[in-house]
Write the structure tokens for this entry.
Amino acid sequence: MSSDDRPESAGDAELFAQLRSLWRHVDPMPAALIDRMIAAVATEGLSDEYVLLTLVEEPLGAVRGDADALTLQFSDGTTSILLHVTRTASGAHRVDGWVDSVSGAIELAQGESIRTTTADDTGRFMFDDVPNGLTRVRLSTTVGDEERTLSTPQFEL
């Protein structure tokens, strides 16, 4: 029987216990390691569960600021929507959008008000005279044989 095949002897157990004790003294486990590991495991899939919101050209403060133009990009990892919002002379907004996949109906929802349009062959769509308020854009797409709906988080105009 080689030394690799034999069961651990009492002397080996004592030696391993002394090594554990030495390393606990020389390089102790950080106090917050367990909490940090639990948080890391719990948040591992969050990016897959939520639609990503990315500001493309404007700083974050412009989402609720008085900027004349706002560019937003939303993606679920399969489909992306790019929205460019400008203020019109009447004080309302014009929302120009582009989608990178074949889509069906595109909805712009503000409370109970829902407007519907479709994208052209290049993926471009537009909503005109959109009033101020919390806004959400939804679109239906077909990926393979699967019907999918992408809904953006609410954003304020």
